[in-house]
Amino acid sequence: MKKLIVGNFKMNTVPSEFKAYAMSLATKTQNSKNDIVVCPPFTHLAVAREFLGGSRVEVGAQNISEEESGAFTGEISAKMIKDAGANYVIIGHSERRSKFKETDKLINKKIKTALASGLKVILCVGESLQTRQNKQTCAFVRKQIDDDLKGIYENELESVIVAYEPIWAIGTGKVATKSDIAKMVEIIRKEIALQYSEKAGNSIKVLYGGSININNYAKIISNPALDGALIGGACLDVDNFAVICRENY
Ligand code: 13P
Fold first, then answer.
1. Where are the beta strands (DSSP E) in 147-231?
2. Which ligand 1 atom is at minimum distance from the Cα of 210?
3. Hey, which of 4, 5, 9, 10 would you mutate to test ligand 1's pocket, going by the most ligand atoms within 8 Å of its Cβ?
4. With CB atoms 3.0 to 4.6 Å apart as the test, which of 19, 56, 86, 192 could cross-link to 81 if both were Cys?
5. Is 209 touching ligand 1 by the criterion CB < 6 Å?
6. Do the beta carbons of residue 214 and residue 234 sit within 8 Å?
7. pLDDT at site 114
8. Catalytic residue list
């Protein structure tokens, strides 16, 4: 089954290192049947366009401003990343939510701005360990979906991908179980079906992210409930990431 494999570099590498990475990934994924996206830092986007252009690998950014343009010193707009060659943007990553205090309201505005600029959105949702221990996971994730997608039209959901990333699984080596993942994907689809339609719930793409590595990726990503994966640490090694991208799921 064809999957969507997304690599999130977070704040790692410098543009000059990324050139070699991009050239290598382009070559190594030539025959991959999966859809592949890499999301490097903003400073790497020009390099990405130059060395991934014409390859099977598409490019995304890790964030955008909620504003379209204007007096927002230091911010990067949706139009800027689109013009720099990005087709995707990650919005609502738990690191942005917790370390940069991004609220669901802000995330909702960012999603609208991204969609208006023709970007595809990878919306991250997921619960903390405490929420999980309090058995609030389902309600918490459903509310994130509701609040983050408020006012977004059903036809726009074609450009929205939901990534379920439990916070306790990010960079910790702890992975959600197959049945946990299947359950959460179902919760996400049901919530979309409730807010929009059965068809929307069935067709939205759902990814899993959190401690996927070269040893566990095949088992996790082949889960038929999933449309693909969002990979952090393990995407930084181009050989390993290319193996994950080439796999026949
Ligand atoms: P790790 O794969 O490093 O756990 O990170 C997951 C993630 O946050 C991807 O966005």
1. 160-164, 205-209, 228-231
2. 4
3. 10
4. 86
5. yes
6. yes
7. 98
8. 93, 165
**Based on the structure, what is the number of domains in the chain?**
1
Instruction: Let me know: does 55 contact 23? Beta carbons within 8 Å.
Output: no
- pLDDT tens digits, 93-121: 999 999 999 999 999 999 999 999 999 99
Q: Which helix (H) or strand (E) covers residue 91, if one does?
A: strand 88-91
Its domain, for residue 174, covers 4-246
CA–CA dist 78, 208 (Å, integer): 24
User: 171 CA to middle of ligand 1, Å?
Assistant: 6
Given a contact cutoff of 8 angstroms between Cβ atoms, the answer to whether 59 and 48 are in contact is yes
CATH code of 72's domain: 3.20.20.70
pLDDT by residue (tens digit) across 180-220? Answer: 999 999 999 999 999 999 999 999 999 999 999 999 999 99
Burial group, residue 99, by CB count within 10 angstroms (0-12, 13-18, 19+)? exposed
* pLDDT tens column, 114-171: 999 999 999 999 999 999 999 999 999 999 999 999 999 999 999 999 999 999 999 9
Residue type, 243: V
Give the nearest ligand 1 atom to 169 CA.
Answer: 4
- With a threshold of 0.90, does the pTM exceed it? yes
Which H helix or E strand runs over 59?
strand 57-61
